[in-house]
Structure formats: structure tokens, C-alpha cells
Amino acid sequence: MWISDLIHAKRWFFISLAAAIAIPGLTLITLSQFANEMSEEEALQVATVAVKNYVDENPPRKGWRATDIYVGINKNVVVDVHVSKYDHAQVINQRNERIKYSYLKLVCPPSDAWVYNWLDGGDRIWVNLHHHGETIIKAPCPNSNQSRFLS
Predict the structure, then answer these.
(1) How many CB atoms lie within 10 A of CB 101?
(2) Distance (Å, rounded) from C-alpha 63 to C-alpha 102?
(3) Among 111, 54, 129, 138, CA closest to 46
(4) Domain residues for 122?
(5) Percent share of the chain, pLDDT over 70
(6) Average per-residue pLDDT in the chain?
(7) Are 64 and 119 members of one domain?
(8) Residue 130 shares a structural domain with residue 74
(9) Domain containing 132 — which CATH number?
(10) Buried-state track 48-85, b at ≥16 Cβ within 10 A, e below 16
(11) What is the Cα–Cα distance from 7 to 13, expressed in whole angstroms?
(12) Is the pLDDT of residue 22 over 80?
């Protein structure tokens, strides 16, 4: 009978404890009923903003400038990078495709970068290196092995 005496003596504590757990729980349940999932297009727009923020925080090589970041035709995030120095563009153009891709990877975020959290599993970051409108190379960044929020 000591348990019933304890509950009776501390009933305000137990009522307060139940209210402290129930009220936030009911609030979360109610709010979750109004939550909407993002469509694929909205998720890509959020990923585009995340990539733009990443590029702003980690600019490409000296003399290179990200001119545009947008959602491409194949529903991938595309980063246009202008190689402003003619010498740099010529050196890259004279290399084979594998070496050109190595230059392109200098623009790509590392595989553990936070920007990949906003990309779905099938989405990629494409980089378009160009010099005054002439495309040097356009290819995707290497895949990230990191787990993602939206997958």
C-alpha cells in the first residue's frame, strides 16, 4: 500500500509530469499533420542554394569564377565556372579527357562536404568549365558516399 500512498501524496508532481510530456507531444503530433514533403523540383532548388552557399564559402581556383548555378535539363545542379585566364584555358584544352576531368574536380566539393546532404541519391553536381563561352569540359563531380537527408 505504500505505492498508493506515495502516488496520493505526490499527485501534483505526477499530474505536472504527465502534462509536461503530453502537451509538447500533442503539439508535435498536431504540427506533423500540416507538414508537407518537398517535391523533387523544390528539393533541387534547395540543393542549388546549398551548392551556391558552398561555392561562395569555398571559391574555385584563383582566377576561376562561378558565373551561374542552376538546375539543368537532366535535373542536376549545374555550376558554370569561367576560367578567366587564357593561358589556363589553353593548358586545360591541350590535355586529354582524364586530365581535363582532374582540373574539373578542383571545383567539386570533397566527398564529405555538407552540400551533399541536400542532394538526393540520384542527383549530381555537374561542372561546366568554360572560357568566354567556349566549353572546355562539362562533367559530373564524383559521387559522394555520404548518407543524405532526402534519400
Answers:
(1) 17
(2) 17
(3) 54
(4) 40-140
(5) 93
(6) 84
(7) yes
(8) yes
(9) 3.30.300
(10) bebbbebbeeeebeeebebeebeeeeeebbbbbbbbee
(11) 9
(12) yes
Domain shared by 61 and 121, yes or no: yes
Per-residue model confidence (pLDDT) at position 151:
43
Question: Is the per-residue pLDDT at 9 higher than 60?
Answer: yes
Are both 79 and 124 inside the same structural domain?
yes
Residue 1 vs residue 85, higher pLDDT: 85
| CA 148 – CA 117 distance, rounded (Å) | 5
For 29-75, the pLDDT digits (tens) are: 888 888 777 777 888 888 899 888 888 888 888 888 889 999 988 88
22 lies in some domain: yes
If asked whether residues 111 and 47 sit together in one domain, one would say yes
16 or 123, which is more confident: 16
> Are 59 and 127 part of one and the same domain?
yes
Please name the residue that has the C-alpha cell 523544390: 42
Q: How far from each other are the two terminal CA atoms of the chain, in whole angstroms?
A: 54
Whether residue 131 sits in one domain with residue 69:
yes
